[in-house]
Amino acid sequence: MALSQWSMVPVLLLAVLFYLTPTEGCNEAICASVVSKCMLLKSCECEMLDKGNCSCCTDCHQCLADYYMDCCDCVGMCAPPDPNENMYKTSSIEDLSDPIPELFNVLTQEPDALFRWTSYSYPVHEDVLFFKPGMDFAVTVDKQNKLHKVRHHHQTNLNFEKLEDMNCTVAFMSQCMSLNKCKSSCKSMGSARYRWFHDHGCCQCVGTTCVDYGKKKPLCLKCPLPPGEEENNYDYQPPRTDYVEENEIDDSE
C-alpha cells in the first residue's frame, strides 16, 4: 500500500508543474514547493466555479499559510495579477505650507549638477484641460495620518488668459524615497505641493504655478533601482493602508 502511494508522487509532481506553467502570474520560484505539498495533501483541489460555496477554501488557506497571498493564484484561489494595473496610478498628494517660489525656480531652472532631481516644464494650460470645475478638492494626510478633504484654493477663479503664458515646473527626485522624506525634500526646495507614487516611492515636487499636482506618471531617474542593486540602498517603505490614495484615471502627462 505504501509503495503505491509513493508511486503516485511523480504523477502528482507532474500535475503540479502542469498546474503552475499556464498561470502567468504564478511565481514558481516562491510557490512550487508549498503548492506541491498542498497538492499532495489534496488541500487545494477547490472548484471555484461557485464562488459562494468553497468547501476546501479553509483547508487550502491553512495549507498555503504565509504563502497564501503570493501563491493563491497558482491553485486558482484568486485571480492572477493584472499586468495592465499599474501602481503608478495610485499616489499620495498634499499641499505644502509656506512655499518659496523664488527658491524653487532657482533650483529647477538649470539641471542639477549632482543629478539629485530632474526638472520638467510644460504649459500650465495642459493641466487646465484635465481640471474639472466642481471637482476642485484634494485630499491630504496630517501628522496622525488622518484624512482631510480641502479645497484647492489655487484652482478657484482661474484666469485662463493669464495661464496661456505660464509654465508648470516640477522636479522628480532621482532616488526612491519614503513619503515623509518626499515631503521634507520638496518643502526644502520651496515646492508648493508634492505627489508621491506608491509603486516604488518616486517623489515629484510641484511648483506654485502648476494648477494641478504635476505629471501623472513617475519619471524619477533612478527609481526603481536598476537590476542587481540592493533594495536597502534607499529608504522606500510600502504605502500603509491608512495613507490617502489618489486613483488616477487619466494617464496623460
UniProtKB/TrEMBL annotation:
<keyword id="KW-0217">Developmental protein</keyword>
<dbReference type="Pfam" id="PF23782">
    <property type="entry name" value="Tsg_N"/>
</dbReference>
<dbReference type="InterPro" id="IPR006761">
    <property type="entry name" value="Tsg"/>
</dbReference>
<feature type="region of interest" description="Disordered">
    <location>
        <begin position="227"/>
        <end position="253"/>
    </location>
</feature>
<dbReference type="GO" id="GO:0030510">
    <property type="term" value="P:regulation of BMP signaling pathway"/>
</dbReference>
<comment type="similarity">
    <text>Belongs to the twisted gastrulation protein family.</text>
</comment>
<feature type="domain" description="Tsg C-terminal">
    <location>
        <begin position="88"/>
        <end position="224"/>
    </location>
</feature>
<keyword id="KW-0964">Secreted</keyword>
<feature type="signal peptide">
    <location>
        <begin position="1"/>
        <end position="25"/>
    </location>
</feature>
<dbReference type="InterPro" id="IPR057726">
    <property type="entry name" value="Tsg_C"/>
</dbReference>
<feature type="compositionally biased region" description="Acidic residues">
    <location>
        <begin position="244"/>
        <end position="253"/>
    </location>
</feature>
<keyword id="KW-0732">Signal</keyword>
<protein>
    <submittedName>
        <fullName>Uncharacterized protein</fullName>
    </submittedName>
</protein>
<dbReference type="InterPro" id="IPR057635">
    <property type="entry name" value="Tsg_N"/>
</dbReference>
<keyword id="KW-0325">Glycoprotein</keyword>
<feature type="domain" description="Tsg N-terminal">
    <location>
        <begin position="25"/>
        <end position="81"/>
    </location>
</feature>
<dbReference type="Pfam" id="PF04668">
    <property type="entry name" value="Tsg"/>
</dbReference>
<dbReference type="GO" id="GO:0005615">
    <property type="term" value="C:extracellular space"/>
</dbReference>
